[in-house]
User: Which sequence fits this backbone?
């Protein structure tokens, strides 16, 4: 089960709103929600948590590039909303995935298919060699683009430093991390009101 909220900084402190994750299909949807919650292009902090397994923080300051932090990238990468964050942080691009799915063999525009010869034993031998190259001795898959997410934190741990949550504090949070972040921000009451 997920919990997600937006904290928007105002002149009078913080305003919290429940973030409906059903409306979030991509990271850009999440950023759009954060920007829409902003008061006068001030800071918005999106907090996402999955049952004490991992939490994520997205900071949006007006039109600047968003900043991200995930407490446990490995756990987050196995969830739909967490994987949006880890994919962004690891540089995985959705457009690359779309290109990988296309069959680009040079025959798209009516060109004749090239028939290749295999002087070294044929495609069956080559396929076996490729399969052998994809796994390491310890059984991990190391194909291109299959970079695993690290088991620990990932992203910018300093994204809340200027708001009262030090990077050291952020990196050691577990359990009810979002409440501890809200307490440091001075937003406990408003966050609990939407929880």
Assistant:
């Amino acid at each position: 089960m997920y919990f997600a909220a937006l904290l928007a900084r105002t002149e009078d402190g913080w305003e919290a709103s429940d973030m409906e994750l059903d409306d979030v299909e991509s990271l850009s949807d999440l950023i759009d929600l954060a920007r829409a919650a902003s008061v006068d292009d001030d800071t918005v902090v999106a907090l996402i948590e999955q049952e004490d397994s991992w939490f994520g923080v997205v900071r949006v300051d007006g039109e600047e590039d968003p900043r991200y932090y995930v407490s446990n990238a490995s756990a987050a990468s196995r969830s739909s909303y967490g994987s949006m964050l880890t994919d962004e942080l690891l540089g995985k691009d959705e457009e690359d995935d779309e290109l990988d799915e296309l069959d680009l063999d040079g025959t798209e525009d009516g060109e004749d298919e090239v028939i290749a010869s295999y002087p070294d034993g044929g495609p069956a031998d080559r396929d076996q060699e490729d399969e052998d190259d994809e796994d390491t001795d310890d059984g991990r898959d190391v194909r291109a683009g299959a970079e695993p997410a690290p088991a620990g934190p990932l992203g910018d741990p300093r994204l809340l430093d200027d708001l009262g949550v030090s990077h050291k504090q952020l990196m050691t949070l577990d359990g009810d991390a979002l409440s501890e972040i809200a307490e440091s921000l001075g937003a406990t009451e408003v966050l609990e009101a939407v929880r």
Notes: The two ends are 13 Å apart (CA to CA). The longest strand covers residues 2-10. The beta strands are 2-10, 13-18, 43-50, 54-61, 67-70, 154-155.
